[in-house]
Specification:
Blueprint (H helix, E strand, L loop, with lengths): L1 E3 L6 E4 L34 E10 L5 E12 L3 E8 L8 E12 L4 E4 L4 E8 L6 E7 L5 E7 L4 E7 L8 E2 L3 E3 L3
Antiparallel strand pairs: 1-2, 1-3, 3-4, 5-6, 6-7, 6-10, 8-9, 8-11, 11-12, 11-13
Length: 181
Amino acid sequence: MFLYRKNADDQLWHAIGANDCPNVIGTCDVVETMYFDPSEWEMRNSEAGVWKVAGEAHFRDGTSDVDATGVTVHVKRNSRLTVNAAPEPVAKGKTITVTGKVTRANWETRKYTVYGDRHVALQFKPSGTGSYTTVKKVYANGSGALTTTVKASKTGTWRWAYYGNTTTGASMSPGDHVVVK
């Protein structure tokens, strides 16, 4: 199995070399998950995006066959979010300022860099509940900084959620718990 863009010669690289279908006559179904670790493989940022899947079979007689599956996949760079909700604690009805930052992996420098102008959701989970709800959506500035204000009504945990795109994966910040008195 491998990923390609324009034709089978334009490959990301062969990712799987196992013999998953020994002694099979006819159709063989293969399910594989590919993980790309830029700390182990040299990758360019331009490799993030849309790729197609193909399979290459090698036969006992020395011949081979390459077939495109028609399946499209997205190779994505990781994203990260930070959060800070202040003040802590806060009086009911007062303003809470929630800040944070959006970054994403730069495969070429092997560091996380700013990822500005992203649409990010502010989410809240009241104490005693198990799920977050989106309170509002904001855009990060050009430096990836996030900031917004909300009125304090309940004790709970605030976080940012970025839903990703075709080149960058989704992420959630850790939560910041704020007590409302």
